[in-house]
Predict the structure.
Amino acid sequence: MVFRLLLALLSLIAAVNPGVAQSRIKDITNLQGVRENQLVGYGLVVGLNGTGDSLRNSVFTEQSLQSMLDRMGVSVRSGSLRTRNVAAVIVTAELPAFVGRGSRVDVTVSSLGDATSLMGGTLVITPLAGVDGATYAVAQGQLAVTGFQVIGQAETITQGVPTAARVPNGALIERELPGKFADLGAMVLELKNPDFKTAIELVDAINAYSQRRYGMRAASERDYRSVSLSRPAKLTAARFMAEIGDLTVQTDAPARVVVDSRSGTVVIGQDVQISTVAVTHGNLTVRVTDAPNVSQPLPFSNGSTVTTPQTRIGIDQEGGNIAVLGATSLKQLVRGLNQIGLKPNGIIAILQAIKTAGALQAELVVQ
């Protein structure tokens, strides 16, 4: 049902946009030097309903809890803790570029010990540091857990991952990254999907706009990944990026077939072509069934019970239809594969065989 809905959605998109798709520059490029930074921290989640770490198995949780209580003036070093309402967690976040002090970002909380669920927990104040060791944010707040786990005497139901959670706007920025957007030197746009044709289309679109508005050429290609920009005089970098960000270009990509053998997913690019080949595919199934026989001795005899093996082997072979595949468009390729009437695993095997035969004029990516 989901597959049919996906096909209907793709058909609707194709009907609305029959030509080549136009993409905005802001959606297909990144400005070099403007990126996010990773933050990480170690903290404690409290308030769990008996689903936290067992302190005997998670020694680091017990040490962290003792250190936290010591800072609060409570001495528990001489006693033995038995609580199951605390869990040690790793807290991660992404620090946006040019974010100001006092801003908030989301954080992800992941269990580190043997806790079974973080449902209902609260993250205690946790410093978040960058790769340089400096603290850039502090996280704290109520956890939002989407997964759950219900354990009974004879059955256990688990949905999602109950030992991972998020805290929306849970981290408060305490330190800004060095540098400002206005301090950027050379402005370079980097394509998210590098391609020579897309880079040229990008340069032509920017130059057509800048020539018409400012009487100058503002872009030049460096390679298949990056494009250099020349900002017009008396125009800030932020305003210039806002103006060219909404310009649209035609994107291009190499012919590629992506195969996920685990889920049986096959994604075929628009420009994939297959040289004319004849293909046949048959499913060979071998069934081996063991049914042991037990031989009982007659009453009052001196015999013993003997188990004799009995094996049944059955061989079934289905399919075997032969079809000629030769595609000049994606629609013809899909029609040719459908003529054979294969399941996803069969299509994956055929595509790999066609690539080995040298008839698949595209890159085959197997995941």
Summary: The first helix runs from residue 2 to 16. DSSP finds seven helices and 22 strands in the chain. Residues 1-10, 12-19 have pLDDT under 50 and may be disordered.
